[in-house]
């Protein structure tokens, strides 16, 4: 009877030990699985953190670049506005000088030469000439004499005061107009004057 009980006890111990070992193995396996999952989650979170940081850095750089571009564009616009204001002032000064020029004797010789060159390639016919009212006495007779030598019959009309001086020449159908007004000559030079002004201002800024 004792021997049987001993055998039972031994069997129970063996079974217990097996169960204990099995539980320990399962516990270790579960711990290992959890550890691996934690490491994976940590790496995933670290990757997400790096991606978020990278995105924020990229966004900050892009926004910074956009702000720099915007600032440069605003600066360029202000610079162009300043150039345009100075150019308009310069054009106005030239117009005033041109107006003063119309009061000189040199103006008459100059416009007479311009008229001769303007009709070099024009054939006989009837034409319209517009001049300022105050220039009629200066040019009407001279222009007629020059035109008659080429078989041109001229009719004179009044030129707008905004044109300062000079003349326009056209046929009666207005299919072409030769604009030799002083204002037009100044406006034709506006681009070149503006370009020179821009480079002069840029050079002055670089020399500071």
Automatic annotation (TrEMBL):
It comes from the Bacteria. The keyword Coiled coil applies. Keywords: Coiled coil. Gene3D superfamilies: ATP synthase, E subunit, C-terminal. Residues 17-51 form a coiled coil. This is ATPase. The lineage of its organism: Bacteria, Bacillati, Bacillota, Tissierellia, Tissierellales.
């Amino acid at each position: 009877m004792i021997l049987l009980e001993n055998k039972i006890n031994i069997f129970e111990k063996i079974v217990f030990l097996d169960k204990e070992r099995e539980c320990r193995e399962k516990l270790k396996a579960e711990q290992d699985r959890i550890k691996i999952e934690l490491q994976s989650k940590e790496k995933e979170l670290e990757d997400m953190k790096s991606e978020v940081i990278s995105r924020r850095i990229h966004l900050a750089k892009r926004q910074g670049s956009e702000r720099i571009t915007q600032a440069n564009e605003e600066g360029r616009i202000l610079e162009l506005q300043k150039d345009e204001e100075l150019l308009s002032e310069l054009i106005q000064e030239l117009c005033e000088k041109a107006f003063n020029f119309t009061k000189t004797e040199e103006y008459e010789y100059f416009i007479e030469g311009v008229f001769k060159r303007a009709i070099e390639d024009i054939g006989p016919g009837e034409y319209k000439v517009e001049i300022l009212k105050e220039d009629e006495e200066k040019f009407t007779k001279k222009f007629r004499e020059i035109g008659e030598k080429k078989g041109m019959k001229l009719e004179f009309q009044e030129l707008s005061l905004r044109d300062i001086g000079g003349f326009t020449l056209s046929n009666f159908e207005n299919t072409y107009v030769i604009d030799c007004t002083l204002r037009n000559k100044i406006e034709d030079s506006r681009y070149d004057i503006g370009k020179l002004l821009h480079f002069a201002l840029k050079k002055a800024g670089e020399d500071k």
